[in-house]
What we know:
255 residues, alpha/beta, Rossmann fold, 2 domains, membrane, ABC transporter ATP-binding protein, P-loop_NTPase, ATP binding
Amino acid sequence: MLEIKNIYKTFNVDCEPILKGINLKLNKNDFCIVIGSNGSGKSTLFKVILGDYKVDSGSIKLHNRELTNLSIYKRAKLINSITQDTNKSIVKEMTLLENLALSEMRCKASTLLPYKRKTKKLREQLTKLNLGLERFLDTKMEALSGGQKQVIATIAATFSPPSLLLLDEHTSALDPKTSAFLMDYTANLVEKNAITTLMITHNLNDAIKYGNRLIMLHRGKIVEDFNYKDKNALTITKLLDLFHTYEDNTLTGVK
């Protein structure tokens, strides 16, 4: 379970906070979609959860463990994240197979399982995905396309299911066919392994289709929170109307 209480984050004392009293509670296996205009605080929220930014005040707990003062490295044992920047999710100097092997061992105790057996297992898993990526198992990641890297980063992050998964527009650089496959793959894996997940997206079709909850951020606050039942009644038109309403209220000074 993820519990965020009254989080504030400011980068400049002369400017208003980027995050203004964020409160959010997710149960295990919740797949929560996060939407909002540029500058609403979505990526900043993810970075304070990861520990990239220190909060001004408030607390973040994962399975009742306080994360606020936990180092980035210790948080990495609990949290996996995938962003648009694949260089943060892979080791480009290593081969595709080596990246998967490294990820598969992540968060696990040391093992004497022979490397050949481990790599055989990974080859079989990748072949089952039917993406043709098994042809590049011994290719260095830096030689692959941006889309291929993004697919591998996602697969690697979910081979060893984390306590919390953060997805920051992880399909935005992909072609429509690969994006659709990767979203279905991610959603099925989240459900199968009961992974608590937060996903930022600007794709309103994906925002409606996936997840059991949807929140909207605006100027550092959660302004909408739809549960599964309410989310199923949403349409792109309704979401666009909400975006316009909050932007119009900001321009007119209405709070």
